[in-house]
Amino acid sequence: MTHPPTGPLFGLRVLDLSRVLAGPWSTQILGDLGADVVKIEQPGHGDDTRRWGPPFLDDGSRDSAYFLCANRNKRSVAIDMADPRGADLIRRLAADSDIVVENFRVGGLVKYGLDYASLSAATPELIYCSITGFGQDGPYRARGGYDFMIQGMSGLMSVTGRPDDEPGGGPMKVGVPITDLTTGLYATVSILAALAHRDRTGIGQHIDMALLDTQVALLANQASSWLNGGVVPVRRGNDHPGLVPYRDYACADGDILVALGNDRQFRAFCTLLGLPDLATDPRFADNAARNAHRAALQSALAPAIATWRADDLLAAMDVAGLPAGRVNTIPDILADPHIDARGLVQPMTRTDGTPVQVLGYPGKFSETPTDYRRAPPRSGEDSGDVLRERLGLDEATLAELIAAGVVAERLG
Fold this sequence. Notes:
This protein is of the alpha/beta class and about 400 residues long. The chain has two domains: about 15-215 and about 345-410, Crotonobetainyl-coa:carnitine coa-transferase, domain 1 (Rossmann fold); about 245-330, 2-Layer Sandwich (formyl-coa transferase, domain 3). The chain has helices at about 20-30, 65-70, 85-95, 115-120, 145-155, 180-200, 210-215, 220-230, 265-275, 275-280, 285-290, 295-305, 310-320, 330-335, 335-340, 385-390, 395-405, and strands at about 15, 35-40, 75-80, 100, 125-130, 205-210, 245-250, 255-260, 325, 345-350, 355-360, 405-410. The chain is elongated and about 85 Å long. One of its GO terms (molecular function) is transferase activity.
């Protein structure tokens, strides 16, 4: 079932011309916040990620779990933009929208009249966000970009994984498509900023988002170490480049994570472990000294930690106000009572009655809460409803477009 949105972006209309993850992640956030998101898909195919499995839903659609993670709170309309009639329908939808999000290659929408210059000429208040691998200019602008390759090119993989001299050492990607996800987040932030500008001036604008730009920006402290300290960051496994101790440790029955952020916490941890001499040892007196002697400190801490049961040490650290945690599996954390209390796992039902579960929006609004009104749609299931409602198409015209293959309904 669906219900009217309640979020802070209620009343805004988003035309989603994006596929895969970065763009759909951004438009899903806008949908969670109350915007009406219309997702345009290719008839007979749909978003590429619908087939990125297994696992798949066993409901006839064979939609993948991957697709389900990024496409709730949207309506799916299947239109062939390569047909001039289809491109015209999408242009009319854009003129009736506040925001367009697309992730075609640079210049790929010009031939359809769906590029920013064409659409903004008719609708100057339009906010248009383009997401590409490398941006709208620069020597790499014509290249396609995927998360994995950007993780490597950006330098992220040079600081992710075990050190080269350890077993299993070498470059490692992050376990989720972090570049796509964070580009979607930055795109959303940028769209909201453009909305604030439009509220003041009445004028829209073009937002140029690039996967490589985003991931380089996210190098944060690691890039700053090079830019401002001349230090080349390297892979350290689970060791922090600056804080010590800040890593995983083996207890008698499993691993825990210890994340101590200051000297006071370090001294309290030494007392808890029964190692008061470590706290007064000049080699470990402050974080800079511990960095210089991190190998010696780890050799002293590891045997003491290994005598504890993980639950006992975590409980003792909690009482002492020291940050620590488990290395959970995904099933572990999704069954955690705190995650349940925070409402992070949301049950939804597709229009055919198929149940799905999604991870909710993490922000909590006191006045305009997010909602979960539309489960991830089947490809094209909303084509007729949207085209009647937004463009006023009559039944004869809609039937003609469906017969010609320009529009499709409820595929898969």
